[in-house]
Amino acid sequence: xxxxxxxxxxxxGKPLTQARKSKGLSAFSxxxxxxxxxxxxxxxxxxxxxLSLQEESGRQLQPRSExxxxxxxxxxxxxxxxxxxxxxxxxxxxxxxLLSELEAISxxxxxxxxxxxxxxxxxxxxxVAIEVAKMKxxxxxxxxxx
Length: 146
Fold this sequence. Notes:
Layout: E1 2-4, E2 8-10, H1 16-19, H2 33-59, H3 66-90, H4 96-107, H5 115-145
Antiparallel strand pairs: 1-2
């Protein structure tokens, strides 16, 4: 316990009941050996705790699971197909940006090991390929009419 004067009291993290147990009203007091010994294990526990926290945060950076990859890719593909659908409804389908986006998504399809995921990715990939073929045909028809 540190004591600075009678007014300014500096606590070392001890509860107030223990900190105020002073034998005298001296301006300065040195902590007893027992108080110093009780502080040392806290510092030795700090390092292992920090290391374990770092290990826990390292585990969270593991590679994504196959399911997460398929879900992410499928979401991107379905979003691109929705954009294409809206473009068809607005009458401005066949843009090169949509075509290149759909082709890139089709090429980036994940290789799934689980049969259900493989079937899902193949059905989305087929749908994307059909829409890309439709867009290419539409674009060639437009060029021929011009």
